[in-house]
């Protein structure tokens, strides 16, 4: 018996040659499983296209061009969109997207046609996930725990509702809908690329031996740097917001801080609350490179000593990556277009941490990828480790 057969028999699976593995992953069960994303993207595109058609005929609820915040109204990508011009474009793009996704689900085109389909998929993914949404989804998610705690303990803040302005109103819920569609398109692009390359549809691996940055050891090295950046930036943001809440003159004069608090009651404490929950997120970010991010620590009842499922960390970290990155891109656009405050030390202290959010999101995404590469283990489909 060969060494390969011995290893296969010990693991309870039969030995498979590289060519057989590739064939299974490209057209077998794993290939079928990897095609679900394209069908989801096709369904999402068709339904959103039909929604655009509904708006074409005068339907209510066109969600674009309704940014109440002054900054968002100036720099959000579709802040000036109107139903008459935007709805037909949405309907047409929805139909094109549905047809393209079905092609990606049913075919494996190479050369120029395949590259065109892949480029369309990634364009849709980036546009829907990062470019069209602005900071409001992050603001709504970040304010939710502040609102829950404030309402239950202090009957504060007043006049803020979960489905009202500044929270989960329809234009913001629509942005979450766009994010979902963008993620479906990203998954479609990844799955299609794997099928074209003949890689495993589940894990994306081709060769039997991993080398370079994708190995667990390599991912551990660069993942630590990514975590360091992803922790430092929100800590800097928290430092400035708590300084303002405590009337510490960090760039601002104390009287200016107090005057702003009188004119907008609770503004600094709301910022401090958001920053505090951001700091709690940095603790979870550290878990991407710490032992307790893989094994539940002893102080957690019922779970102590049990392994942490990778998706338990990967899913929320990926969501925060998207929300932080799209908000950071809006603040970056505001700076480029001259709408960010830059008139002095106070403005710099106020806006500089937000200008780093794009880097924060990218670093958190890289840290999450490193965690995945370290934790994915042996593939249940192709058997590669």
Record keyword descriptors for this entry:
single chain, 385 residues, mainly alpha, disordered N terminus
Task: Describe what this molecule looks like in 3D.
The model is unreliable at about 1-35 (pLDDT under 50). The chain has 15 helices and no strands. The protein folds into two domains: about 20-135 and about 170-195, no CATH class; about 210-375, no CATH class. Helix 10 (about 215-245) packs antiparallel against helix 15. The chain is mostly helical. The chain has helices at about 5-10, 20-25, 30-35, 35-55, 70-75, 85-105, 110-130, 135-155, 170-195, 215-245, 255-265, 265-285, 310-335, 345-355, 355-375.
Topology:
Layout: H1 3-11, H2 18-27, H3 29-34, H4 36-56, H5 70-75, H6 83-106, H7 111-131, H8 136-154, H9 170-197, H10 216-245, H11 254-263, H12 267-286, H13 310-336, H14 345-355, H15 357-375
